[in-house]
Amino acid sequence: MGMRIKAVIAAVIVGVLALAGCGSTSGAAGNDATTVRVTGFSVLTAANKPLFEAFQDTPEGNGVQFQTSYGASGDQSRAVQAGAKADIVHFSLETDMTRLVKDKLVPEDWKDTPSDGIATSSVVVIVVRKGNPKHITGWDDLAKPGVKIITPNPGSSGSARWNILAAWAHITGNGGSETDAKAYLTKVLNNTIALPGSGREATTAFTDGSGDVLLSYENEAIEARQSGADIDYIVPSDTLKIENPAAVTVDANPKAKEFLKFMTSAEGQKLYAQAGFRPVIDGVDVGQVQGANDPADPFPAPQKLFTLDKDFGGWGKAADEFFGDGEDGAPLGIITRLQQTTGKVGSN
Amino acid sequence: MPGPSRRRRPRTTLTRGAGLGLGLATLWFSLLVLLPLAAVVATAASGGVRQYLSVLTDDQTWAAISLTVAQAALVTVINIVLGTVIAWVLVRDRFWGRSLLNVIIDVPFALPTVVAGLVLLTLYGPNSPMGLHFAFTRIAVWLALAFVTLPFVVRSVQPVLEELDVDVEEAAASLGASGRTIVTRIILPSLAPAITSGAALSFARAISEYGSLVLLSGNRPFRTEVVSVRVLSFIENGSNAQAAAVASVMLAVALIVIIALDVVQRVAARRG
After folding, report:
1. Quick one: which of B163, B263, B142 has its CA closest to B209?
2. Which residues pair with A306 in a beta bridge?
3. Quick check: B7 pLDDT over 70?
4. Dist CA A189 CA A173 (whole Å)
5. Residue A27, pLDDT above cutoff 50
């Protein structure tokens, strides 16, 4: 009897260990030289498909299989940091890449490409209701009383930070002081009725009827219009350039490197443009882009285009300066503090 | 324990088979629950006492914690009353559509919470067909929590109510007990354990809710930001110790409430 119970216990333990083992090894199932594992931020789910197919039609991509994983950019980056296998990582913003460079999962020279490590690009735009009933023309209108704004939560979503910094740059990039920018953003935050968890959720809340204005990315607005959303969008005369970095991981196979090259080739960029992204290299004939305000001229250049590197000293500096949460006694970020003040004032 | 114990208990009731069962339960429980909990506490402690206190004294975090706990408590109280009523109606009454209602009660369990949030936004957002504009307010937080926690009390009270002997109630009535006495002295004491366990589940579920709120509540700091969103903000900034610190506070809150409910249940059972 005792023997049998021991046998059962042993069997159970083996079973549990086997289960645990499955969890850690299943990710490595396609670890051969022709499988490329792509980890990216959510919006790429649809945008990447045509690229995979086109790459498979090239001599380099013949026979290559893709394994994909999509989700919120920060979550995806933290997953890879925690050991999820990836050959290509494609994030919404650079801080998610820096995290992996620090842990030596992405080579330090990842920016040494013709497009400086950037694979897709867009600009911050102002989305309005069809026909623009509130006559929104630019950033200044967002501070007017009674304008209801929706923008994804800059606290919990890294990608949402592009939008807030675009509003900030509108003031500081046009000669305004930091005090002016704070005053402007206070008004904008007071007008903000919702901070949904991600860019897509913000779009959902807006198309569902909430708010007058949605701060979003041009590619998100174009994709929403492609899938039938009844919205218009405005590319402000001055706005922030959104740059999404992509890189191969340190132990990526050669096919992954070929695919990264393809992503930033003229052909790859044309396919991304069809999904609403602005090309990251010159001389791409993007053709007609359905869903854009003018499909024949889908990406009008704003008069002023701010960049994170030029106007904010890069993400490494901006993330703490604007969105810091006071860890280790560091001062709160400017936006974090503004959110707290506006929140308290209007909390009753 | 007050009072003499009614029966002397043997030191252990474990037979071999039961011992195996207990071993399995402990192993499984440790792997699934104790390890992650220990990890949360360890991560929370990794930042040191100063860090821990700085998280807890942060206004925005406190606002999120108090909003979440208050709304969860409110929802739990309402579930205790309405959940018991719904269970009563389902078990004791016969009416058209009863079995349909019995099935639909579980929908909030089965529906992915993001979908629930989307449905509620359509119903109570600016295009509300009923003219109810609750989206992005605290009422929306309450509404979402009430929706996802509805089945807990119903489903824990229902089976107990089904087993409850109607003869006892009839006997009490024939001996002259009023309806009120029957409810407070016979029915409620029997239901108390089920009600409190349902309440504990519904409270625990409510303080951890995320999916249905991200769309509906608006996540505005100090107004509609709940704890789970606050924790996510810390994680996004790479402040894992702070995130774990907030999580550990919520663990303590959940523990206190579950113990409190248990005490209430014991008191109620003794009165019956």
Report:
1. B142
2. A240
3. no
4. 19
5. no
Query: Do A340 and B135 make contact, defined as CB atoms within 8 angstroms?
Result: no
> Tokens 């039938």 sit at which residue?
A228
A155 closest CB neighbour out of B126, B233, B241: B233
ipTM of the complex: 0.74
Q: Inter-chain contact A195–B235, Cβ cutoff 8 Å?
A: no
Judged by CB atoms closer than 8 Å, whether chains meet at A208 and B23 is answered as no
Instruction: Determine contact: B238 vs chain A, CB below 8 A.
Output: yes
A153 touches chain B (CB under 8 A): yes
Sequence-ordered list of residues with C-beta below 8 angstroms from that of B228, at least 6 positions apart, any chain:
B68, B208, B209, B210, B213
Residue among A153, A162, A345 with most chain B CBs within 10 A, to mutate: A153
Work out the end-to-end distance of chain B between its first and last CA atoms, rounded to an integer number of angstroms.
18
Tens digits of residue pLDDT in A36-62: 999 999 889 989 999 999 999 999 999
Q: Which residue of A has its CA nearest to B67?
A: A347
- Long-range pairs for B136-140 at CB < 8 Å and ≥24 separation? B136/A193, B136/A194, B136/A210, B136/B216, B136/B217, B136/B218, B136/B220, B136/B224, B137/B218, B137/B224, B138/B67, B138/B71, B138/B223, B138/B224, B140/B216, B140/B217, B140/B218, B140/B224
- If you average pLDDT over every residue of chain A, what do you get? 88
**Nearest Cβ partner for B236 among A12, A158, A193:** A158
Are residues A194 and B135, on separate chains, in Cβ contact within 8 Å?
Answer: yes
- Check CB contact under 8 Å for A156 and B232: yes
* A236-269 per-position pLDDT tens digit: 999 999 999 999 999 898 999 999 999 999 999 9
Nearest CA-CA distance, residue A327 and chain B, Å:
7
User: Is B133 near chain A, with CB under 8 Å?
Assistant: no
What are the tens digits of pLDDT across the range A95-112? 999 999 999 999 999 999
Q: Which two tokens stand for residue B24?
A: 């399995």
With cut-offs at 50, 70 and 90, classify the pLDDT of residue A25: very low
Residue with tokens 């809150």: B253
Q: Which of B85-89, B172-176, B194-198 has the lowest mean pLDDT?
A: B172-176
> Encoding tokens for residue B243?
């995130």
CA-to-CA distance for B85 and B83, rounded, in angstroms?
5
What Rg value do the Cα atoms of chain B yield, rounded?
22
